[in-house]
């Protein structure tokens, strides 16, 4: 127990040495020969930086787990220190990977990190692992189509049957949309089959590659027959794809885009459809766009159901998650861990959208879509307060990272150690407050509650928050602190 406690306290330099030892055949064999499952599990957890790797005390740790987590640790902390591949180590883990139950999270996380950075040293380790038939299959199952294709292009694919169906289906997306429109023209009341995650990924990838006619997307959203209970649910799932909503944003007026945004965000937030009279629904047949089958400009008219979106001019406003500011210094590290930052800046605009959704899960522990929950998150991530965020389901490994990250924070803060994950969320993170934005400042006022006694000796200031991607600090008024 003493050794394990000391192990968990060692710094980055010693942990890097430990990780390198796991990538050497001689050192790895010495480590495994200790035959202390609890110690090996602790090493594994240290290298994975508290990611839950599905290990239990007393359960044997495979060498492939140590190797993958060692590679991941070095890649995250000092990627240029990744050593040349050890052929014997690769042969050991190849044999194990082909014969044991796999830890999907470790594998997918490492390959996804490689997609983002394309580290040549890491590539040398991953390429022989990619030749194991099960690895491409797992990546195809758990990664998006675009991510999987990136890996195929990088490492090749021995089994062409894995690649061809993906490419073939992508090229068929536009044909599928045309067939749907034709079917709706002949049988407008039919229910469309639900879209699964893989189909959604195919559609998004095809749009990004320019293989989909934008008019086909627009015509689906203007088709009045789809604005019934089942049809609107189908369109809502399509709208959550960022490329789809971006197509609509490009080809529709700002008013029309906002109208659709409110409809589908509210649809998901309430877990029910907004019921309106048939006359209002049929007005969606009058989108202001000239398509293949419509020559006159047409206008949406749904003013009676318009809802106010917050902009910088409509303040102050009430928020329900002001307490997230209690952890403001750790947010850049969390976003960096999730692959959203480079040089302390968001890598692209979609990364900001992703950060908003991940931050929402960090605070609430669920994926319920509530617009007001996103207002403060938008500001913290450098977006406009009323920005419409196109949501997609969070990947299981990202949820896992968030939960483990929160657990690690709780364990490191003395006054929180006796609290559980949900206690922290309910008592602190989900704290009501007020957001004020004007030309001079951004100010968040946090409502005081009795539990704030636990913040008396807090390790960082709670009157100001600074983020490297924002051009001005946030003023915090945590009442009575």
Structural topology:
Elements: H1 2-9, H2 12-21, H3 25-33, H4 37-47, H5 63-77, H6 87-97, H7 104-117, H8 120-130, H9 134-142, H10 145-155, H11 160-171, H12 173-186, H13 197-208, H14 214-221, H15 229-239, H16 242-251, H17 254-270, H18 278-282, E1 317-319, H19 331-337, E2 341-342, E3 345-346, H20 349-364, H21 371-380, H22 396-412, H23 421-429, E4 433-437, E5 442-446, E6 464-465, E7 474-478
Parallel strand pairs: 5-7
Antiparallel strand pairs: 1-4, 2-3, 4-5, 6-7
Helix pairs in contact: 1-4, 2-5, 4-5, 5-6, 5-7, 7-9, 11-13, 12-14, 15-17, 20-21
Give a structural overview.
The structure is a single chain. With 481 residues, this protein is mainly alpha-helical. The protein has three domains: 2-158, no CATH class; 172-305, no CATH class; 317-478, no CATH class. Helices cover 53% and strands 5% of the residues. The strands form two sheets. A five-stranded mixed sheet has the order 1-4-5-7-6, with helices on one face. The protein has a two-stranded antiparallel sheet with strand order 2-3. A hairpin with an 8-residue loop joins strand 6 (464-465) and strand 7 (474-478). Helix 1 (2-9) runs parallel beside helix 4 (37-47). The longest helix is centred in the middle third of the chain and has 17 residues, at 254-270. 32% of the residues are buried.
Short key terms for the protein model shown above:
481 residues, mainly alpha, 7 strands, 23 helices, 3 domains, 53% helix, CIS_TMP, two-stranded antiparallel sheet, 5-stranded mixed beta sheet
